[in-house]
Design brief:
Number of helices: 8
Order of helices and strands: EHEEEHEEEHHEEHEHEEHEEEHE
Helix content: 25-40%
Bound molecules: iron/sulfur cluster
Low-confidence stretches: none
Shape: elongated
Strand content: 25-35%
Radius of gyration: 21 Å
Length: 290
């Protein structure tokens, strides 16, 4: 496994949502895990000054992806999060830079590692200091004069999350989908939800899938009403706590976003959203799929 440090930044739209979404997508890459996430920092724009402040953070990855493969996966993540770059160093929804890749030195047209400008950027150095093992290597470059331009950023709302991702045993088989990234690495104020249990289904239940505009259990019972109630109760809970970002377990007939099982119980995925996700999107809740 190689150890890689990245810097992430955003200053367009809901920056915290873009950062969290990018971190989730990095953690879901093949043969890759996000092992540490720094605090978040609000910083003045660097280079082109006529733009909003950035929110930045650094993450540590362990990966078996080689540098250029990782770079191409990072570019895909940026594209999927609508990065628009009209001005060099201008506003963007998400920007992800590779700072270090083990002790490798690469200088090519596509990739320079260590990153060319990391020593001149407090918004890279300060978050790096939160997570890197070799702090001496970083601290000497921090510019104390511009230190005050960097403010710790704390997201003030709760983040909604599928309870099974935090390790709660609410899955149909009594198990969970524990995810270290959310349960341990990221320290956020969570509001946990489980639409299927909110809809009145018991924790040990027969699995269900969406078929057309209905939801059926594997035994053929029509559970559309229970799934509808689960979606309504989830939204009520999010509204009650002022939550507008939620992390949802992928592929589920309630929580899936972008892809769900096709209704044949043969593990075949099709494009589509779970019932709760569909309802939350209609009500302007931002979804992160995990
Ligand atoms: Fe997890 Fe959602 Fe299924 Fe509940 S309904 S077990 S939160 S995926």
């Amino acid at each position: 496994m190689s150890r890689v440090y990245l810097n992430l930044g955003s200053n367009m739209g809901d920056s915290f949502y873009y950062l969290l979404n990018a971190i989730s997508k990095l953690d879901k890459l093949d043969m890759t895990k996000v092992t540490k996430v720094s605090k978040f920092y609000k910083t003045k724009a660097w280079g082109y000054k006529e733009q909003n402040d950035f929110i930045n953070c650094c993450v540590e990855l362990e990966t078996k992806l080689l540098p250029y493969k990782l770079l191409s996966e990072i570019n895909n993540i940026e594209l999927s999060l609508n990065r628009i770059r009209e001005v060099h160093w201008g506003p963007r929804t998400i920007d992800i830079d590779i700072i270090f890749y083990d002790n490798l030195r690469i200088e090519s047209e596509k990739l320079t590692v260590p990153h060319k400008y990391y020593k001149q950027r407090n918004f890279v150095l300060v978050p790096l200091l939160d997570i890197i093992w070799d702090k001496k290597q970083i601290i000497k470059y921090i510019d104390k004069n511009s230190f005050s331009e960097l403010k710790e950023y704390e997201y003030s709302k709760k983040i909604g999350i599928s309870a099974c991702l935090l390790g709660y045993n609410v899955k149909y088989n009594g198990g969970n989908n524990y995810t270290k990234l959310y349960a341990q690495t990221l320290k956020l104020d969570y509001l946990k939800i489980c639409p299927e249990t909110f809809g009145g289904l018991s924790i040990l239940r027969v699995p269900s899938e969406i078929k057309g505009d209905k939801v059926f259990s594997k035994r053929g019972e029509d559970l559309s009403e229970e799934f509808k109630i689960g979606a309504i109760k989830t939204l009520e809970r999010l509204k009650k706590y002022g939550v507008d970002i939620i992390v949802m377990k992928s592929k589920s007939p309630s929580c899936g976003y972008g892809k769900v099982y096709d209704g044949t119980f043969t593990e075949k995925l099709i494009e589509g959203n779970g019932r709760t996700v569909e309802f939350l999107l209609e009500n302007n809740i931002k979804i992160i799929s995990y």
